[in-house]
Design goal:
Layout (H helix, E strand, L loop, with lengths): L1 H36 L3 H13 L7 H16 L3 H14 L2 H18 L2 H11 L7 H16 L3 H13 L5 H14 L2 H14 L4 H14 L3 H15 L3 H14 L1
Helix pairs in contact: 1-2, 2-3, 3-4, 4-5, 5-6, 5-7, 6-7, 7-8, 7-9, 8-9, 9-10, 9-11, 10-11, 11-12, 12-13
Amino acid sequence: MRKYAYLALCTALAFVLAGCGSGEKYELRETGIARMDAGNYPAAVSFFDQALEKSDGMVGSFEIDVLQYRAEAEYRMNDYAAAAATYDTLCQVAEEEEKTEYLSRCCAMFIMAGNLDEAKKRYQALYPLQREDGDTMELLLALGAALRADGKPSEAAELYQQAVDDGVKNGELYNQLALNELEFGEYDQALGFIEKGLAAGDGAREKLLYNKAVAYERKLDFAGALAAFETYAQEFGASEEVEREIAFLRTRAD
């Protein structure tokens, strides 16, 4: 009887200890949240890591919740590479219907971290899943702009063209394609993309009209450039730069 009583006591004690450990991880998470709300993001990340260590490698709703908080804290402290790594982990452990959101955030963090190769991989994984989504389009434009700034306009153009080939109609997308063509000296191609962008009828009209004038001027079609700048000035007002361009082009367009 004493033997069985001892075993029962050990079992009960094990459950109590397990309960204490389980409760501790929740306390650590709450402390991390409090530190994050107070703006102490490094401390918040530390507490979130401690909470995860109490999980002994198990991944459930609690761990996913803590990882989400950790990624947010890392983002707020401008550690975009760390946030990308955390979202990458979430992509691997989350339910299928939640993976696209984490994939999107992971791509955004890699862009902000300047790791464009990894950002491109995440975008290419995301694109087939939600190509028509507005967030995906924003990622495409951000990634393309980052690639162009990094001296890789051809890579940006490939991503833009993929979306266009799949039937995506977006004025800013066509504007970015036009900017690429302007860099390559392909002015007629740029004008073609600009006209498609204007036909899309969204909020990129101001940029498109300005770049239309630039394209005409670079191909030495001064009459076309003057007409485009005058249209731009009528619709959006004339800055000093635009006024100078119009004055100059009037001397050349005659």
